[in-house]
Write a structure and sequence with these properties.
Layout lengths: L10 E6 L1 H12 L6 E19 L2 E19 L4 H12 L3 E2 L10 E11 L1 H8 L20 H15 L4 E7 L4 E6 L9 H7 L4 E11 L11 H17 L5 E11 L2
Parallel strand pairs: 4-5, 7-9
Antiparallel strand pairs: 1-9, 2-3, 5-6, 5-8, 6-7, 8-9
């Protein structure tokens, strides 16, 4: 496919979901683009005019030779897959602009200020939630650990052992919040670099294209105490990390437009 620069201009990609983009490309264009090949062919012609004389007969002999040189360049498509998928999705009207009206699984586009939070910052935040974890070595003999300290210790231990995903929050100009998780290997640079550059401030004018998700009640039975407890913990963890009123979105790409 030839990229139409008028549909998607120059962009600065902050995040891309490599596997989903490859899957969408294969479905839209009938395969996965692995390389671009450009062949340049040049032709050179040489001729010479020779006169021959045989008795009373004379003739001109024309000798011709043609040389052909071909050069083939193989180009890594790199982010061309992203550009082609975005151009096709945006140009065909598959992407909606209102996340509140979008149905479950629909593609949406939004723009606003974005903030990221990774596992390390979640651990730091967990230790600053207002819970005080008592040091057992300094606790007077015979004194029991407080429930608050015990809960904080359990929370901190859980977060340290859990495979915590990195998260994002995109706040639009109208106040709408789009939230979700990102794959660390899809980030253009480590999330920690945003903390050093911007602190708690968000990065403005960021575009998001992703899938809206409307959670539905689970059909799992709640008779088992472990299942019930795990569901309560999952709800608590989601509410602790992401705003409850935020629209859940699985991002396909996050990018900024380059003027």
């Amino acid at each position: 496919m030839e990229h139409d620069a008028r549909t998607v201009g120059l962009i600065d990609l902050l995040y891309r979901d490599h596997n989903r983009i490859a899957s969408y490309y294969a479905q839209l264009f009938g395969g996965r683009l692995s390389a671009h090949e450009k062949t340049t062919t040049t032709r050179e012609s040489h001729s010479s005019d020779t006169k021959a004389s045989l008795g009373v007969f004379a003739s001109d002999l024309l000798n011709g030779r043609e040389l052909t040189n071909s050069v083939r360049d193989s180009v890594d498509p790199h982010d061309l897959l992203v550009i082609d998928v975005l151009a096709e999705l945006m140009g065909s009207g598959r992407v909606q602009d209102d996340p509140h009206r979008a149905t479950h699984g629909a593609l949406v586009h939004a723009r606003g200020s974005i903030g990221f939070i990774d596992r390390t910052m979640l651990l730091i935040a967990a230790s600053s939630l207002g819970f005080s974890v008592e040091d057992p070595s300094t606790r007077p003999r015979g004194k029991r650990e407080s429930d608050e300290s015990r809960n904080a210790r359990a929370l901190k231990k859980s977060l340290e052992t859990m495979l915590m995903p990195s998260c994002f929050l995109l706040r639009c100009d109208d106040g709408t919040a789009l939230v979700g998780t990102v794959k660390d290997n899809g980030m253009e640079e480590p999330i920690s670099s945003y903390y050093f550059r911007h602190g708690s401030l968000g990065l403005s004018e960021v575009h998001l294209v992703g899938l809206v998700e409307h959670p539905s009640p689970s059909d799992l039975p709640l008779e088992g105490p472990l299942i019930a407890t795990s569901q309560v913990a999952a709800d608590a963890l989601s509410a602790m990390v992401l705003p409850v009123d935020g629209v859940r979105v699985t991002p396909l790409v996050l990018y900024r437009e380059v003027p």
